[in-house]
Amino acid sequence: MTRDLYARHCAVLPDWLALYYEDPLEITHGEGRHVWDAAGNKYLDFFGGILTTMTAHALPEVTKAVAEQAGRIVHSSTLYLNRPMVELAERVAQLSGIPDARVFFTTSGTEANDTALLLATAHRRSNAILAMRNSYHGRSFSAVGITGNRGWSPTSLSPLQTLYVHGGVRTRGPYAHLDDRDFIDACVADLKDLLGHTRAPAALIAEPVQGVGGFTSPPDGLYAAFREVLHERGILWISDEVQTGWGRTGEHFWGWQAHARSGPPDIVTFAKGIGNGMSIGGVVARAEIMNCLDANSISTFGGTQVTMAAGLANLSYLLEHDLQGNARRVGGLLIERLRSVAAQVPHVREVRGRGLMIGVELTRPGTDEAAPDAASTVLEEARAGGLLVGKGGGHGTSVLRIAPPMSLTVAEAEEGAAILERALRSI
Fold it and tell me: Is there a contact between 353 and 402 (Cβ–Cβ < 8 Å)?
């Protein structure tokens, strides 16, 4: 049955639509931190639909809210008042840390970043954007144009002029040998030098932890130091929280809060986990920025009632059950467990991350050269052992991405680590 579905997939869907595994997997249902495939095999899910199943599969509170809302009305568009959308916007605005915040809902992180770029360039009347090397911001025409990861940017054509900045990757590149303070100073000096050669850009867009790039991050405080330079020149700071938001990093509710010394970002984008699988994205910005557009606009599907109901129920569950604290506690244990394993596996260059956002970088033993074949081997062996993980990395890196639902238990973390240990030792 799966081979038949795969053949049908290949016949009607694009060749560039990536699939995991030599024998692609059809997931039919899930519960808690587990999913099942079409053959009835059970897996512990350490990737959560690319960090989207944030709380748990088939969370009763979310499924109940979706069913009840669907029984009333599914959709009406933003042309009409929408109570669930207003209620979720109020909560997100309050949680954002941005003063006088306004919220616009979209259907994806790509669309959220697209909207943030529109707002920034319109507000600043500039089409120049600063972006980080190794970054990923989505698959739309404008988003791939600012993506600093060649493997996910299929064209150099863009409506924007993009200038790439150092700092998103701590352990590679020309400043990797520096200590944290000197690393930040060098990146700030590079930013100042870059700005001396160009007209003032509209904004810097940055992921506090780079997702597709392999869960890399700079030292805490880098973006605060950048913000001081940007603020002097009126340049906006967009924090792409599509993967880092909602407490996944454990230490903070938003990734930007590790860089909060100079205040909050001007714009925050979000998506993925807030809907727990439902299609929600959005933008939070100061009112003067959000309201700068001088033309009418709507969103047909952004903020639709059934997705907003899911988002409200999911956010309530996350806050009431302190899943941020759980990500910090269980994620900390998982990281330490994986580091103890890595010390005995020559292919593992680094285990890094925060909370339940963990990267295991693989290289050819004794070198800094990527080992994509080893990453594929581990992916397959982990699946055979009953564990699903992700892959990532950019600029010649190969990284296993681990991001389970944030309700992960200590026992499940230990089970997953044991499976991953066996998979790593099989390389």
Answer: yes
